[in-house]
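Support request, please re-run this one:
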Amino acid sequence: MKGSVPEVGLILIVEAVTHRRFAFEFGASVAFNPRVPSQVIAVANQKGGVGKTTTTVNLAACLAAMGQRVLLIDLDPQANATSGLGLPKTEGGSAYRALLGEEPLSGRIKTTGCDRLELLPSELDLCGADVELPRVENHLQRLALALEPVRRDAGRDLILIDCPPSLGILTLNAFVAADYVLVPLQCEYYALEGITMMKRLLDQLRASGANPKLQLLGVLMTMFDIRTRLSQQVVSEVREHFKEAVFDTVIPRSTRLAEAPSFGKPIIQYDPYGAGAAAYEVLAQEVVARLGRAPSDAPAPSPDISKGCA
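Re-run finished. Output below.
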């Protein structure tokens, strides 16, 4: 056959290769696929009723539907994110003991009705953290220390933390453990005062060395009512002050968004074709773009994004 090597010639080639000493040496081994720690986003606002938990639950569900592997940590003793995903508030089921160093955080993680979305539930025992955590060593780093093994687990891309509506010790722990903070703001005039206070706190945490890498991922305008001039004025003023820090996506005021938690479902499953679902789907894409993270190797979602949840 043309171009083939005769059998004798092939034997000589093999012998030459196997007996020849090569002039190069192998260096230290390098991992082909090093594990990248999960990125952590704290969703926080010291003011209640701004759509913080609604944003955390629905953003997490939309990110999971896009192919991201997401863990949602409910750090609010009210446990609204837990019930919003249809899980019960179980006594002793929160991160409380892990924050005190008495057990690993991973033991409390639960699956949800959404593919690629896990939940670390909350319940009332987290109220005790305000009393107990200040007494322990490294009280602001308790969540960061407990979360470190979970972050290095290759099975998750993103971790979202639903913070309490305050700037207490649980929220500060979330900020110290996070890479980014996402701040939901209701479209009202008090919103501007709230974000100014939040930005000042983030600057203090960076300057003090508690978390030098902490960044503001973005400001999200929520409960936008297109019928009112007030909503439009507030959005315009916040954009003027914080410019590119404000997400392009605006979450509309929606009855269906308010109803979904009572059914234990994210909006993409409860009302997949409504304005609320569309807004959070676009927000999820914007968040991924800001993080610079491509979807994981998980199967891509079907055209009906609601099928990621059961």
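The mean pLDDT is 85. The chain has one domain: 36-292.
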